Amino acid sequence: MRRTPATLALVTLAVLGLRPDVGAGDDGTGGPRWVVLRSERFEVHHAPGGAKDAGRVRGWLEAGIRALTAEFTTHPVPELLAVRCRVILHPEPTAAVSEARAGIETASDAAGYQATIRMLTPGAWRPAYRSQLGEAPSEDHFRKLLLHEYSAILLDRITARKPLGWRFFHAPPWFVQGFEEYLGLVLTTERNRTEVLDRALAAQRQAPERIGFDLGVEVTDPYLDGLALVCFLHERFGRARVHALLDSDAPRFGRALARTLEIDLAGLEREWRAWRAERVGPG
User: Structural domain tally of the chain?
Assistant: First the structure.
């Protein structure tokens, strides 16, 4: 996930009742005229001829919203996701958008919370493309990618609604990217939450030194190792406590983590090592 320096999140809200509107749009690159699918809560911008991809994205995000709502039952998900947003599906790679890069821009002003995601439209991906985990450009991969990005806005707004306390994008990268990656896998397809997740966790067996606890939690890759750590937090401490972490009024993430889980760094390392041995086997 690539984020602009000033803004950190993404959202797209998918609902029924879209209507097409052809217009110049604003892709920020001087690109093609866009066909805009408008709704009360979001827009999907695509190039002429990209209606099929836009419809797929709409369906995947609608399913993602339902999954997020079911996952975060103690939070007002529809209210938190009611923001002004656009999803821009680029018809070909650019300097900012490619198979390996999706761009996110967010801002808050008098008009409210705004978010834009830019990604390469699914139909433009090369069949030979493979992700870090060896995933081909399939529905599983696209749904994971979309919900990874989309979930960021919910996590950000959950922490922002508190009168005091840490903010999601102020957390360490392993937690930010790992939580989004975790939701992108476990809340999309059966294959993602089983086969793909297990393959990602296997990296911890192959190279157990990827994650360390010397002067805090240290990782080699905030996406892959962050995913493993967030999966560990959910499976070892429970979803309710992980969600309570988001609601903590502690000023910093580290303090919130220690207070919510009632554990220090040494204890967290012991729990991690025990979970890793049980879940993926000894290194």
Answer: 2
Task: Kindly list the distances between the CA atom of residue 81 and the CA atoms of 12, 49, 87, 223, 253, in Å, as whole numbers in the listed order.
Answer: 8, 29, 14, 24, 23
Please provide the DSSP assignment of 205-273 as one string. Answer: HH-GGGEE-SSS-EES-TTHHHHHHHHHHHHHH-HHHHHHHHH---SSHHHHHHHHHT--HHHHHHHHH
Cα separation, 177 vs 196, in Å, equals 17
Phi, psi of 192 (to 5 degrees): -65, -45
The radius of gyration of the chain's CA atoms, rounded to the nearest angstrom, is: 19
* Domain around 21: 2-128
Q: Is residue 29 part of a domain?
A: yes
Q: Share the mean pLDDT of the chain.
A: 88
3-state DSSP assignment of residue 23: strand
Q: Are 257 and 245 in contact (CB under 8 A)?
A: yes
- pLDDT, position 103: 74
| Local confidence band at 38 (pLDDT 50, 70, 90 cut-offs) | confident
